[in-house]
Structure formats: structure tokens, C-alpha cells
């Protein structure tokens, strides 16, 4: 049996959410691969922007977001205030990474464990909280799903999803629409329109619902008719891998 590159399945599945002409706010890490792949394949006229104020860079290979070359042939370099303010009126979709995601789509990129005595201290919010608070809609991509990465409640709430359920974002005055989907190396998850809880919408090739539940920190529900995430074609895999020749993000 041919082995499945689940990171590629996840990235390409998330990239399909980006449409031609979309204005896309791009977080750090794997979101860069998602946005680059979409722009180089089915969404060539999508406009990319990140929190540093780099508008529509024309990247040919994946690099770290702090690398000055990230802004190659960009149409504008603006400040962080302008970039994050753009979320309120312009961005069609944002893509975020996370170390943890919980049942309401809240994400953690700050610490694992107790905040005062953490097991692991991560990079922190950067612009993630602003993006999750302000974006019209956003998706989250997270590799290596396991129960401690998808707990019922995140160890630390870095970026708001639906907080503790329906109407919570409105109660706290968050203008953005909240998360739309979560993509992991196991499955694609959506949010119930009433309860705002995650449910399994699509299983990746070779993954069962039992596999997903074993790697989730609560008994997650599933769509009545579970879908199968498409397996990337050889051409799609070649394109994706060509964008990261130095293996910055891909194995």
C-alpha cells in the first residue's frame, strides 16, 4: 500500500478553502505553505498579507516569515497597525497555526501546561490574537494531532475561537466571525452552527473515526455523512514540494 503524506493532505485540503481573488491574511508556520500552494495552483490572483505588513509577496519558495526575502516583489510594505486593521474590512479569510485547539476552536500558541510552570513555552501570540479576534473568518491548521493537542479546553487561551459557546464572541465584543474549520493530519473539522462545537466533517485517506476519537481529548461528534478528504494527485504533491526545497515546513 502506498504511504500517505498526511501533512500534504492537510495543507492541500486547507488551501482549497482559498478561492481566486481572495484577500488572505497569513499566519506564521504552515499557513505560509497553505497560502503559497493556493496562489501557485487554483487561486493565482489571491492577495496575501501578513502581520508584518508585507502585502502580496511573490514568493517562489517557503522561508521563515522574519526573513527579509519574504517581502520579495511585494506591492507594499506597511506597518503592523495598518496590516492588522486591514482585517476588519478587507480580508476574506485568514489562516492560523496553533499548538493546541479545543472543542470551541480556541487556540493556544503560548504555553503547554501551567502558565507559571509550563512544560513547554511556545513563541506566543504574535498577531494571532488580533487575527482571530478581527478576521471575518479564519481557519486553523495543526499538525501531529493527539489528545494533548486537541484537549477539551486549551491550557492557555492565546487566540479566541467561539470561547465557551454560542454568543460568547458577541458578548465579549469581538467583531470577527470566528473560526470556520480546523485542518489536522487526521481530518477536517467544522463547527456546529448552533452549539459552535467542533465536529468531524472529513476523514483523511486511511483514517477512521475511531482513530480521530483516540487522538481527541473529548468525545467529538461527527457529521451524519462523513466525507473523505481527497488524496493529492502526483502533480499536486510535486507542486507542494517544489515550494519548500529546503524542507523548512515539509518533512
Automatic annotation (TrEMBL):
Q: What are the EC numbers?
A: 2.8.3.12
Protein name in the entry: Glutaconate CoA-transferase (GctB)
Record bears the keyword Transferase: yes
Which GO terms of the molecular function aspect are on file? glutaconate CoA-transferase activity
Presence of keyword rRNA processing? no
Q: Which UniProt keywords apply?
A: Transferase
Q: Which residues form a coiled coil?
A: none
Amino acid at each position: 500500500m502506498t504511504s500517505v503524506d498526511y501533512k500534504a493532505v492537510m495543507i492541500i485540503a486547507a488551501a482549497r478553502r482559498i478561492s481566486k481573488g481572495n484577500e488572505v491574511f497569513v499566519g506564521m508556520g504552515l499557513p505560509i505553505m497553505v497560502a503559497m500552494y493556493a496562489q501557485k495552483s487554483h487561486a493565482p490572483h489571491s492577495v496575501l498579507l501578513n502581520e508584518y505588513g508585507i502585502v502580496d509577496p511573490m514568493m517562489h519558495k517557503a522561508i521563515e516569515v522574519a526573513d527579509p526575502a519574504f517581502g520579495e516583489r511585494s506591492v507594499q510594505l506597511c506597518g503592523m497597525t495598518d496590516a492588522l486593521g486591514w482585517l476588519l474590512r478587507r480580508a476574506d479569510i485568514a489562516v492560523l497555526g496553533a499548538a493546541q485547539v479545543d472543542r470551541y476552536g480556541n487556540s493556544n500558541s503560548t504555553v503547554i501546561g501551567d502558565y507559571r510552570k509550563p512544560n513547554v513555552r511556545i513563541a506566543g501570540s504574535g498577531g494571532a490574537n488580533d487575527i482571530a479576534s478581527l478576521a471575518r473568518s479564519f481557519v486553523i491548521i495543526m499538525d501531529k494531532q493527539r489528545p494533548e493537542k486537541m484537549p477539551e479546553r486549551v491550557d492557555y487561551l492565546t487566540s479566541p475561537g467561539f470561547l465557551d459557546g454560542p454568543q460568547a464572541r458577541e458578548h465579549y465584543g469581538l467583531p470577527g466571525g470566528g473560526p470556520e474549520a480546523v485542518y489536522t493530519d487526521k481530518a477536517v473539522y467544522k463547527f456546529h452552527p448552533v452549539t459552535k462545537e467542533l465536529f468531524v466533517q472529513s476523514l483523511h485517506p486511511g483514517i477512521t473515526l475511531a482513530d480521530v476519537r483516540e487522538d481527541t481529548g473529548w468525545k467529538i461528534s461527527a457529521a451524519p455523512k462523513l466525507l473523505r478528504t481527497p488524496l493529492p494527485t502526483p502533480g499536486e504533491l510535486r507542486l507542494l514540494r517544489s515550494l519548500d526545497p529546503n524542507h523548512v515546513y515539509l518533512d
